Amino acid sequence: MKLKITDYFNIYTEIINKNSRKVSMSNKKSIKAVAKYIRMSPQKVRRVLDQIRGRSYQEALMILEFLPYRAGSSVWQVVHSAAANAQHNFDLDKKKI
Question: Is this prediction's pTM over 0.70?
Fold first, then answer.
């Protein structure tokens, strides 16, 4: 079963910014990664998230690595952390995410 990165962003990941509201959704199983106190506008972060939404984990990391936006590094850390949480808590393989 190949999971897409959208599953993590739409359901499990919260990006909290000082200027934005906190978004949370509940589910029985949750793979979660939180980035707090990112000093960046939510619109700039959304621009990066829209680029990787719906892609696999490895594709998302490759795209984030070469994006010219500053938000790319923060989103890369959250995606990497969500995958590490999935591997540690639910024994999922990072290559299959």
Answer: no
